[in-house]
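Handout, section B. The chain below has 259 residues.
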Amino acid sequence: MAARVRALLTFAGLAATAVVLSSCDVGGLHPIFPNPVSPNGQDIYNTYLLISIPAIVIFLGVEIALLWVVLRYRRSKQPAGYVPPQVHGNTTLEVVWTVIPLIIVLAIAAGSFVELQRDFQPISNEQMTVVVSGYQFGWRYDYGNGVIVNQPGTLVGDVTPFVVPTHTLVKLQFRSSDVIHSWWVPAISGKTDAVPGYDNFSWLKIDQVGKWRGECAELCGAGHSTMQIIVQAMDQSDFNNWMDQQKAAAAKASPSPSP
């Protein structure tokens, strides 16, 4: 009886630990999944649930069955030489435990494929395009109007935010100048690789003011850990003021033409 109580307490402790950890923030990133703020982020979250819920149910079912077998048939409670009931050749059982996992895996594959086709293809109805270039070790955001925001990596404080207006469909075009990087802000979109010589695409549309954190998700060299990402969404009027300031700073920094 004492062994059974200890086993149940251990299982309850592990479950409680998982719940506590799921409610914490780690380095600005939620350890499971943050609240999505862009429609494609919501789609990825839904796909995450599609995969996680069956996985958790199956995991709990297997662990409970295993715990029951361990407690029910433990040697200390059986007579000497006891052999548990043996079941062989149950065709119905074998078909069931083959077909059900196949259905689950096919559903996960279909849902994931639909999500990839919906949210990881170039869009054509964008209201704004930003070219995102990864480099060792940081990110560069080109708005296409002379304004370029450099986001060099650091482990001390926050990096320079990548600023976008709210209620605006922004097309993101990813490039790299050296090795493969991966732009990832979990609340906004999935991981998108920045590959030398090849453009990848994603998008975002944020309808609330705020800041969201991310990081490079591809091991890209010694400074990989410094490649933080901050995306800041502003109201359109605030964004326009910010953009005017960036244009003025860019014009001031550029050399004057020769007479």
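Note. Confidence is low (pLDDT under 50) at residues 18-29. Compare this with the example in section A.
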